[in-house]
Predict the structure.
Amino acid sequence: MHEWALAESVIKSAVAHAGEQKLRRLKETGVVFGELQDIDREIFSFALEELRAQVPGAAACSFKISVEPAAFRCKACSHEFPLKGLKKTKDESEFIHFVPEMAHTFLKCPKCKSPDFEIIRGRGVSISYIKGEK
Amino acid sequence: MTAIDPRPSVIADRLSGVKRVIAVTGWKGGIGKSVTASTLALLLARRGFRTGLFDLDFAGASDHLVLGAKGLFPKEEKGLEPPVLEGVSFMSVVFFSENKAVPLRGANVSDAIIELLAITRWGELDFLVLDMPPGINDAALDVMRFARGAEVLAVTTPSVLAHDVLERSLELYRKLKVPVLGVVENMSAGRHGTADAAIRTDPALEKALGRPEALLKTAFAGDLARAAGKLGIIG
């Protein structure tokens, strides 16, 4: 249920950016889930619905969720690789779910086995766009 | 448009119930920063203050060893609620690393700290003690940026090397307009020169690590309590 905390951050951030862009009414927010964090879409959507009514400026907003596949680049051998196929236990997946940087503790480059890699994309939750009426 | 990181928008809210944030810093390794931060948290909790301790030294996380924290994990409740040990609400990266190495580059440390600041629900606290990342880097700067109002408790040792580095750190905090409560000199022979308070070398300290009750009875804890009183942390 820590999705709730991240959903709250999405709503507050979207409303704040709408204010900065002088949008009179926030209508739509694009939310991206990085594959690595493996956010529970159902819980997150439920939290958004519940919180929407509580945050002034968010009541009329709909949220369009998409998932960005994770990709990594090894700092040691420059190999680029996806999340799919990397071995991790259920507990390790859970730890990465809470703090995606734990990937560096539990995952390694499939080519040279180094834990020193870069998360190129698909890390965690971000906002891709906001739309509204000026 | 460029992707927006939503997490910083809730960090101030997460810390809004905290009356005072004490950032225990030290720019050299091995000077007792973690023992100082953890023992300070225990002392505050023992005096009845609602106290939190956040181990932000990801590469060398060791507050859990000082506290003897075993088998703990945060509770999921619309975020993460830190487990409470000896009256101290405690958060550390070790909960998520299975005590394995956390090989993070600077930007990754920063990202992980922002994640934990965004999802940790501290609730109402009188004190939140931060065991700061060592030195000054993007992670340490991010903490000071997000934990607005944090007061620095600087730790040093009698070594001329530690003192020299300390002077540079204090200069930076002045530039950042971060209030400095004072400097405590650990492993002191009692002559604390430019430091505001001294904590004497205590041969019994090592054996008390991991046992909060024993730790609070050490001369180290006694000296730290006096230092905290002198520096206005404990009234």
User: Anything to note?
Assistant: The interface with chain B takes residues 1-2, 4-6, 8-10, 12-14, 16-17, 32, 47, 91-92, 95, 98-102, 104-106, 115-116, 119, 123-130 of chain A (CB under 8 Å). The longest strand of chain A covers residues 25-34. DSSP finds four helices and six strands in chain A. Residues 3-20 of chain A form the longest helix (18 residues).
